[in-house]
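Page 42, continued from yesterday. The earlier attempt failed because a stray header line got pasted into the input along with the sequence. Redoing it now with the clean sequence only.
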Amino acid sequence: MPIIVNLDVMMAKRKISAGELAQRVGITSANLSILKNNRAKAIRFTTLEAICRELQCQPGDILAYEENQNDEDLLSTTVSGKEW
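This time it went through. Structure tokens are written below.
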């Protein structure tokens, strides 16, 4: 997946545990773990806003885009019309 979640890095910088952040944000520890371990398929803007508020950071501090080769191959085949 080309979106990388660097939440653990920011949590370490702010010296906050997953349990404490989950409580402050108002989500379960399990859901925070899913997000932190880059297994989430989506995040609500309200959750992202709360995380950024608590960590005093910007969304770009915890989310990054990393292009991978498989995505480039898929894009080139679908753009050229060879596959759908």
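Notes: The beta strands are 3-5, 63-65.
Reminder to self: strip header lines before submitting.
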